[in-house]
Automatic annotation (TrEMBL):
Residues 124-301 form the Homoserine dehydrogenase catalytic domain. It is an enzyme of class 1 (oxidoreductase). Belongs to the homoserine dehydrogenase family. It holds the Pfam family NAD_binding_3. InterPro entries: Asp/hSer_DH_NAD-bd (IPR005106), HDH_cat (IPR001342), HDH_CS (IPR019811), NAD(P)-bd_dom_sf (IPR036291). Signal peptide: none annotated. This is Homoserine dehydrogenase. GO terms for biological process: methionine biosynthetic process; threonine biosynthetic process. Its EC number is 1.1.1.3.
Length: 408
């Protein structure tokens, strides 16, 4: 039996899915495509609707939501699930904010919700976590989950560009939006980590509870220091479970050459999953682009037509409710343009002046860093995690080699 498919949105991801379906199985093309902007130039060979009820009130079997507005996306997905439909979404912000409610709607009305494209574009990490770790216990998940910020960091290290130059290049190459804020401040990654945390650990940690520091304050002197240590800086999302609970954090992090994340460059994403039975597994793939993300949407569509739904085994049958993450202790390098900017974060810690910046190394909890986020942003502090790649003493030694003033 042929499924009737409705598609909301026909941007980069929607076009990628459409192209794949057209070439592979035309019967999986949408009957109806609803878009919002009547003035946008579009393919004249296709017919578009501007009325959401053409899908919501129609006898469609599968609804695909691929729009950017999380509020509107929620309305569409909510309505489709209440109609018992099979639903596919790629809207990470909407999903991270509403997963508990959407899962209850799925159960109550007999629909299904798949969202592989929401977490790592072309990497099937959600399906893998859902299917491949039955009877296993995941202790750690780490990843590079934003292609834009990874591309920017690659340009800083490989081309010696400034952050502003790298952002501009990312925009020119289609790897960053006209407003790149959500990519460079880490917000995009926090949505993805909320989603992955549910599948890996059975814990729903709202993204607002996750320590999130982006790449917006990484500077050339940070890059010089990392290179002198034989390391790179990557924006790393970490979820780690121990006897005390589950900690989650996202921040620029030093990565060594023996870590597979070291070689992940440009728009690529990657994830490392460490579990009791399987040890460490590593996944890498394109984290941005029309076809990579569209491929995950298309894969969800083929799964939906076969009746596949996420098992959420790690929930152990429990209802999804918001939880607080466990605070974790991090060793971090803190740097700024002035001594005054550093002072709120460095009480009693030596400050060093080198390479036109002021530096300190501190051990601080993720809970304290969350409290200090307004100061970090206002004072434009660069915060980089050591990540057990190098000792505090070696970092200080490198800073002191270039040091002009030691300020206590």
């Amino acid at each position: 039996m042929t499924n009737r498919i409705g598609l909301f949105g026909f941007g980069v991801v929607g076009q990628g899915y459409y192209e794949i379906a057209k070439n592979d199985r035309p019967e999986l093309l949408p009957e109806t495509i609803v878009v919002q902007n009547k003035n946008k130039e579009r393919d004249h060979s296709l017919q578009f609707s501007f009325d959401p009820t053409d899908i919501l009130d129609a006898p469609c079997d599968i609804g695909i939501e691929l729009i950017s507005d999380p509020v509107q996306a929620y309305d569409y997905v909510n309505s489709l699930l209440k109609s018992g439909k099979k639903v596919i979404s790629a809207n990470k912000k909407m999903l991270a904010a509403h997963l508990p409610e959407l899962l209850e709607l799925e159960k109550a009305y007999g629909g299904s919700l798949l969202y592989e494209a929401s977490a790592a574009a072309g990497i099937p990490i959600i399906t893998c976590l859902d299917c491949h770790f039955a009877g296993d216990h995941i202790s750690k998940l780490q990843g590079i989950l934003n292609g834009s910020s990874n591309y920017i960091l690659s340009r800083l290290f490989q081309d010696d560009l400034s952050l502003q130059e790298a952002v501009k290049l990312a925009q020119e190459n289609g790897f960053a939006e006209a407003d790149p804020t959500l990519d460079i401040n880490g917000s995009d990654v926090s949505s993805k980590l909320t989603i992955l945390g549910l599948h890996a650990f059975g814990k729903y940690i709202p993204e607002g509870e996750i320590l999130t520091i982006g790449v917006q304050h990484v500077h050339a002197a940070d890059v010089t220091l990392a290179k002198s240590l034989g390391l790179k800086i990557k924006l790393i999302a970490t979820a780690q479970k121990d006897k005390d609970g589950l900690s989650l954090h996202i921040l620029p992090t030093l990565v060594s050459a023996n870590d597979p994340l070291f070689l992940v460059e440009n728009e690529y994403n990657a994830a490392k999953v460490t579990s009791q039975n399987l040890g460490e597994q590593f996944f890498q793939g394109k984290g941005a682009g029309s076809l990579p993300t569209g491929a995950s949407v298309y894969a969800d569509l083929t799964k939906a037509e076969k009746g596949y739904g996420y098992s959420y085994d790690k929930l152990n049958g429990k209802k999804v409710t918001p939880e607080q993450p466990q605070s974790a202790s991090l060793e971090v390098i803190i740097s700024a343009d002035s001594q005054e900017a550093l002072k709120p974060m460095t009480d009693g810690i030596s400050i060093h002046q080198a390479n036109g910046k002021y530096w300190a190394i501190s051990t601080v909890s993720t809970a304290e860093l969350i409290k200090q986020l307004p100061v970090i942003e206002t004072n434009k502090l660069s915060i980089i995690a050591l990540n057990n790649t190098v000792s505090k003493e070696n970092v200080l030694a490198q800073i002191q080699q270039q040091e002009t003033v030691n300020i206590n």
